[in-house]
Structures are given as C-alpha cells and as structure tokens.
Amino acid sequence: MKTRERNPARWGESDITTPGTSLLSNKVNAQHLAKLALVYVRQSSPKQVRENVESTRLQYDLANRAKLYGWPQDRIDIIDDDLGTSGKSLHGRSGFQRLLAEISLGHVGIVMGIEMSRLARNCRDWHQLLELCAVFGSLLGDADGIYDPRQHNDRLLLGLKGTMSEAELHVLRSRLDAGKKNKARRGEFYAEAPIGYIRTRDGLAFEPDAQAQSVVRMIFAKFIELGSVYAVLRYLREEGVQIGRRIKNGPSPDELTWHTPRTSTLTYILRHPAYAGAYVYGRSKSVTISTPEGRTKTVQHRLPSDQWSVLIRDHVPAYISWEQWEANQQKLRENSTKFGFGATGGSSLLTGRVFCAKCSSRMVIHYRDGIASFDCNASQMQFGHGTCQAFNARWLEPMVEQLVLEAL
C-alpha cells in the first residue's frame, strides 16, 4: 500500500513529536538523503531572540522534521549564526552565506526553514538561493511541505512566496513608520533618552543622578567659557571628569555607567535640541550609497532646522535656553574647518590611502615645501590624547610610484 505525503499545518503538532512517526514524500529520494539536511534558524533582532522564545524553539524542532523525512541524525546540521540579524540583505548574514556555499559545493539535499521569510526578505537573495538549489538538486522545505526548485509549479510557488516575503517587510516597515510619525507629531515618540535624561511615562525627565546631571551642565558652561569642543574635551580630560549615561540595551539596561569623554559625545550633547527644551523628529534622512567593495549601506545626513519633520518648543525639561542653544550652533559652525583626509593641492598618490598601524585610523596628509607628510590625530581629536605618530613621505612616495608602474 502506498502512503501519501503527510503535511501537518504547523511545526510542533502531534505528528512531529509522536515516536515512530515517519513522513514520506515522492520528492525525497536516496540522492537527497545521502546529502545534508540544513535547518536554517533566524530571528530578525536580539529583542525577538529574547522575547519570541517559542518561535525559536519551533525552528530548532525542524531537525526532528528532517528525521521524519528520512535523514539520519549525523546528516542534519542546524545553522543558527544569523539569530538576531535582519533578513533584508545578504550582507552581515554569515549563516546564510554558509548555506549558499554548502549548496554550491553539492553537499545539501534539503534546506528547511519554518517559513520562506526566515530565509530571505529580499527577492535578489531569494532567487539566488532558488537558482543554486535548482542547479545542484537541493530541495526546500517549510511548514506547508517540500518543494523542488527544478519543477515548474514548485518554482512558481516559491517565487510567489519570496515576493510576498519582501512585500510583507515593506508593509510592516510602512506601518511602523506611520505609527512613529503620528506619535512624533504629538511629541510622544522617543527612540532613546539623550545623555542627561531618562524616559518616563510622560516623556523625558532630568537624570536623577545629581553627579551625572551636573556633568552635562558643566559641558554647556565650559563651552560658553572656552568656545570650542576640543577645549572642553581637554578640560574634562585634565580634570578626570567622566560622563554618565544609561544604555538602553545590553546586559544591564538602563543602568548608569560612566564613560571617558570624547569629541563625538560632546558634539552630540551640544547639537541636540532637547537640551534647550525642544522636541524634534526627523533631524536627518537616510541615504543609500554604494561602497568601493560593491556593497550598499545606509548613511544618515543631518538636515537644517527648517526641514525637520517635527519641532515643538518648550516640550521637555531644558538645561539651557533656546537662544543659548542657537548661539552654540552658530559657534560650532564658525569653528568647523570642514577638512577632509585628503588635500586640495598636491600630487601625492597616497592621499587618503595611509592608515595608522597603532589605531587603524586614516592619517591626514600635509604638504611642506611640496613634500607630503602624514600624521594621525584621531586619538587627539576624539579623546584629547597626543598624536599617535607622524612621518615624512619623502622616502615612501618614490617606492609606491615604482610599485604602481610595475603593476601597470
């Protein structure tokens, strides 16, 4: 008597856990069983890993599902390297890259995921997976059954599922963004409390620790007195003053911790309008750019104040007045040198290409009498330390020129 393929609706049902149960499918043959069954486990964020415990458990139970289809225990491998990683892109997902590599080597008989969105939320990555599975004869399995990418009907259904997964990500993001914007118009949306504040039911309140609060007030007072971020940094370093802040995530969330001041932290405090009592939303916009390695990444660009989405004055407790905050912004603009790592003049081939071996920062180039020299002042600018190192490129430039000519 032939046994038809049994297809439980969801993982974790009694069919999965009953001892002695077996599942048969006409798509699984000895060729597939001789290879690996890879179980791919993924959650989109660390918060989901902590809170959606049941979903993670069901994904690990896919290993039992593979046993019921006939794979022995020693040929079932679980890939959970991407727990806490978004599936919207291939980059940063070492587990998914390992999955593709194993398929390309012909080692995989079936790839199992609790649903297709766990494998990829991007059509490009999803169709790359489908193509590799079709070429190397690997099956795909989810909660609804087993699919063979070499069969037209299965491939059509898998393509539709991949499109739905990508569209679902767009819909979810649109809903979340709409909710955040609506809440921000009322001045009630806070991603994270700025340094010197804590979150409350009503919004923001001053940091209850008197010492941490006094350090923030000192930063504003010293900036008015000294007139530059670097001068304030140097003063805090000389006096041994540390900045208290509460980290939202981590092993001890919302616990006050003390950190060495750095230029970026001071600039953040001096520029944030919340310290002048204003609620703001949409101070920056996201722009996707291409990297020299051929990847894409999203960067944030600050917007001028007249382009902010929401600005509500006198909405939160203030450390300084709005007039003083505007004066501080003017002073910061006057102090800005707008310099880069290269140089507007000069012919050095090494411009922007030399990195410090001590701190790995990009070294700044200068010219004296037409000869290039490099120095690393990243540690000095960020922490108030001395220069890492500096050298004259008189001997390095001819050697690099010769190597370039030989390579060409």
What this model shows, in words?
The strands form six sheets. A five-stranded mixed sheet has the order 2-1-3-4-5, with helices on both faces. The chain is globular, with a radius of gyration of 29 Å. The protein has helices at residues 14-17, 30-33, 46-51, 53-60, 62-68, 94-104, 116-119, 123-136, 152-185, 210-226, 229-239, 263-271, 322-335, 378-383, 396-407; strands at residues 36-40, 76-79, 108-112, 139-142, 145-147, 197-200, 203-206, 243-246, 256-259, 279-281, 284-290, 296-302, 310-312, 364-368, 371-375, 390-392. It is of the alpha+beta class and 408 residues long. The protein starts with 13 loop residues before the first helix and ends with a helix. Helices cover 39% and strands 17% of the residues. Mean pLDDT is 82; it is low at 1-20 and 338-344. It has three domains: 14-172, 3-Layer(aba) Sandwich (Rossmann fold); 197-335, Hect, E3 ligase catalytic domain fold (Alpha-Beta Complex); 337-408, no CATH class.
